[in-house]
Design goal:
The protein has one domain: NAD(P)-binding Rossmann-like Domain (Rossmann fold, 3-Layer(aba) Sandwich), CATH 3.40.50.720. It has a seven-stranded parallel beta sheet, with helices on both faces. Strands 7-10 form a two-stranded parallel ribbon. It has a two-stranded parallel sheet with strand order 8-13. The chain is globular. Helices cover about 40% and strands about 15% of the residues. The protein has helices at about 10-20, 55-65, 85-105, 125-135, 160-165, 185-195, 215-225, 240-250, 260-265, 275, 285-290, 300-310; strands at about 1-5, 25-30, 45-50, 70, 110, 140-145, 150, 170-175, 180, 185, 205-210, 215, 230-235.
Length: about 300
């Protein structure tokens, strides 16, 4: 199949692009900056095309003749706290993608979303919900994926906390009791890959979450133990947690924000197991944790090789 991927240079995208190319698909990866990602041109089966995906005519031209479009574009924070950045990235871009598919005659669309899309009080979740509504009303042959927080080597979860814990003997933590069911990046990628070849996935929403539920404090403490660090995790009352988030709104790079805080008010745990529906046995955090925090020949690589041999 000829597949066009938006957002393919992100954490999930890098894994998905490689797997699809190795499976024999012709992948066109759309990127704003060719210079930053030129190395991906070296992988057989992957073509990198530089363009502004927000420009309707350019996007329509880029996807013409493809068999499916995969939209992975997403952000966790925006400039300011008014929802405009989320609206542009999640809602407006999704509508542009839908229109481009319709004009180009591309019927198949796979859309990345989030567990709890449309619920809660955050701009992030609200915009994800609006994007899903647009996809469902598009008339395309769509499939939507709603992952919980995604883990894997180099992730924004265990790896980010590992960096913080190496610097801070005490970690004040907002919404420490918030619940997550982390899902392995390889399982998310496998869900996309299997859905491409299964017509039964058309018109379906797949919740993607792991078998174990942890609080945010659990995740931080697990990380510290794995690193062999003795650190104090200090759960903050909600009033102080909101102040912490407000202060981080003004920190460059926004490692945390008011909108992140609002998202944490809704536990990221699932209800209908999408991995089970797709025949995927989930990888558990406990089996991967030693490799998430650094290893040359990691168990992740062995898992990936196992999946390639036995689960293709």
């Amino acid at each position: 199949m000829h597949l066009v991927i938006l957002g393919g240079t992100g954490f999930v995208g890098r894994h998905l692009v490689q797997q699809l190319a190795q499976a024999g698909h012709h992948v066109t990866l759309l990127s704003r900056n060719l210079g930053q990602h030129y190395d991906r041109l070296l992988t057989p089966g992957i073509t990198l095309r530089e363009l502004d995906v927000y420009e309707p005519t350019a996007l329509q031209d880029a996807i013409t003749g493809s068999d499916a479009v995969i939209n992975l574009v997403g952000i966790l924070n925006e400039a300011g706290d008014n929802g405009r950045g989320f609206q542009r990235t999640h809602v407006e871009l999704t509508r542009t993608v839908i229109a481009a598919c319709q004009f180009a005659g591309v019927k198949r669309l796979l859309q990345m979303s989030s567990l709890n899309a449309g619920r809660g009080h955050s701009h992030y979740l609200a915009s994800r919900g609006e994007a899903e509504a647009a996809v469902k009303a598009s008339g395309l042959q769509w499939t939507i994926f709603q992952p919980s927080v995604i883990f894997g080597v180099g992730d924004g979860l265990f790896s980010r906390f590992a960096a913080l814990l190496k610097l801070a003997p005490v970690l004040p933590l907002a919404r420490a009791s918030a619940k997550f069911a982390p899902v392995y990046v390889g399982d998310v990628v496998e869900a996309f890959a299997r859905s491409l070849g299964d017509s039964r996935s058309i018109g379906e929403v797949f919740e993607l979450y792991g078998p174990d539920v942890f609080s945010l404090a659990d995740i931080v403490r697990m990380t510290a133990r794995q690193l062999g660090l003795h650190r104090l995790v200090l759960p903050l009352p909600d009033a102080l947690g909101r102040l912490q988030a407000l202060a981080f709104d003004f920190v460059p790079g926004k490692p945390f924000s008011s909108d992140n805080y609002r998202s944490l008010l809704t536990d990221s745990v699932g209800g209908i197991d999408g991995l089970y529906r797709l025949g995927i046995t989930p990888v558990r955090v406990v089996d991967m944790l030693p490799d998430l925090l650094g290893s040359a020949d990691s168990r992740q690589s062995r898992y990936d090789r196992y999946r390639k041999r036995h689960l293709a």
